[in-house]
Specification:
The complex is a heterodimer.
Chain A (H helix, E strand, L loop, with lengths): L3 E8 L6 H4 L12 H10 L29 E5 L12 H8 L4 E4 L4 H9 L4 E4 L13 E5 L4 E4 L5 E3 L7 H6 L2 H7 L6
Parallel strand pairs in A: 1-2, 2-3, 3-4
Antiparallel strand pairs in A: 1-5, 5-6, 6-7
Helix pairs in contact in A: 2-3
Chain B lengths: L6 H10 L9 E5 L2 E4 L4 H12 L11 E3 L10 H17 L16 H7 L8 E4 L13 E4 L2 H10 L1 E5 L3 E7 L8 H12 L8 E5 L1 H4 L3 H9 L8 E3 L4 H11 L20 E6 L6 E3 L7 E3 H4 L6 E5 L6 H11 L7 E5 L3 H9 L1 E2 L2 E2 H7 L3 E2 L23 E4 L15 E4 L2 H10 L11
Parallel strand pairs in B: 2-3, 2-4, 4-5, 7-8, 7-10, 8-9, 13-14, 13-18, 14-17, 18-19
Antiparallel strand pairs in B: 1-6, 11-12, 15-16
Classes of the chains: A alpha/beta, B alpha/beta.
Amino acid sequence: MQTILEGKAYVLGDNVDTDQIIPAEYLTYNPAIPAEYKMFGKFALCGVPKDAAGLPKGHVPFHEGAEEFVSPYKIVVGGKNFGCGSSREHAPIALAAAGISCVIAEFYARIFYRNCINGAYLVPVECPTRLIDTICTGDELRVDLAKGELLNKTTGDSWRLNSLGEITPIIEAGGVFAYAKSVGMLKG
Amino acid sequence: MPSPMTLTEQVLAKAAGRDAVAPGDNIWVNVDVLMTHDVCGPGTIGIFKKHFGQDAKVWDREKVVIIPDHYIFTKDAMANRNVDVLRAFAKEQNLPYFYDVGSEHYKGVCHIALPEEGHTRPGEVLLGTDSHTCTAGAFGEFATGIGNTDAGFVMGTGKTWLKVPQTMRFVFHGEMPPYLMAKDLILAVIGDIGVDGATYRAMEFDGDGVYALNIEERMTLCNMAIEAGGKNGIIAADQVTIDFVNNRGKKSGNKPFTVFKPQAGAKTIFEKVYDVTKMEPTIAKPHSPDNKAKVSEVKGTKLDRAYIGSCTGGKITDFKAAAGILKGKEVRIDTFVVPATTEVARGLDTETIGGVSLRNIFLNAGAKIGDASCAACLGGPSDTFGRLNTPISCISTTNRNFPGRMGHKEAKVFLASPLTVAASALSGVISDPRELVV
């Protein structure tokens, strides 16, 4: 597992639901097919209302151009209840396909959290501090998962992150299938 | 003696083969039914084959239920391709419970099709690749939504790991007034606790007000547990449940089941008691299911469209309620009616009010009736029946109104009961059904 994650922040609000992360009209792509997988990156976060896209100001496109599959932003910062709504695994897939390595939120909706970990798409980190009022879209962040620290390299601020706890071995193994094989639950 | 357990804990203990479980326990459970559909089925099958092999067989062909329902009546080639993936898999695995599009077995919305076809039983664990799988908690079972990777794992092993949730109790007392429906109750609950108020928790519904509801209304209550972030919603099975399950079980082999009752003294972390006689028609304003208002507070708000359908608002009980208001009158705004399943669609012809079929009541009122499916509840391809392709205002019996849920991300969606939606369709503005229901 990569324990240092760095890159530009893209800041969103509370209750970012899965229809904002990847609208239902794009769920016809099959993520199991590589050529279609990358389309999820193209349409990731296209459902976010413009005034909430890239806080604090909003109206910040997640991609540099309409035809880009990958975003220049690497870390999404959210508020409460990130990933609420549907069970679609396409949501963490879309963020990962766009190049997001990590989401930092106050807490997550249950199914989204589980999907992130099971598929090892990205690391869902919780921070007890509300970050969306202090971190700005475009700030350079550095997440140290081993130490549980978040540094805003642009401003010099730093915060403690919650421990990943019991799910650490699943993340370290690279998802629930790899974990199940590593502990002998499934035949390797 | 183990400590008293909540309904959810009793079901999970049985599934884990233990005498007792407690909130916070991580347990492995045996899954009784795995359901998937056209949106998440292809991804699930891909993960299953990647990890278990191209020639792998599902763990139990009697326990995998595949119900295409989301993007059915569309020209979208990708959507149709996804149904082909399900079709090929069902054939290859020789699955007995595949409700194929275009066949006499086609059903429509999975959460309504599951009980109709006898796949919901008290005391069981039902997992589905759809967040509204929690609907089946109405049958006294543990039912929750999962992602493709979880589902792929279950498909190969029949097992999954779960953390036993804490339980919140919602108790309803009193006789339901004729102008209220289960949708009003659950919108009130979600408004009270918020869209994250039950995150990671079980929502147990109890009280004489709940047991007086028919099975469809109980499904509406449990369906929206996820809109409060709940892991599951659950209602103890009573004779109404048992009669329904015994009758429908004939279609799926009459499997035995276990009825659990709430145990006195079971620890819960929250309880709220509602007197239904004092509740009012309730609505969720844009853009969140917890943006609660009394209908009386927002009446007169201008609307462009009314939509009656979905797992939470497209059952026969919902259409009877709406038709009772629309009978002999004409709608003033575009009104879309979408039966959840083909069985509900047939019910539109066989159920009558004053000698007129529900279908004719809707058609005479000027409503458009679509084919059984999820349709515009979640937007979908641009040619989906009833989809909000422009930023209009819609009042809907569906269950979720985050931005873009029904199509255009600037469209405004108000969630309400079928009675409130029908009353509003007649006037073109949000209207209180109490003025029309005697």
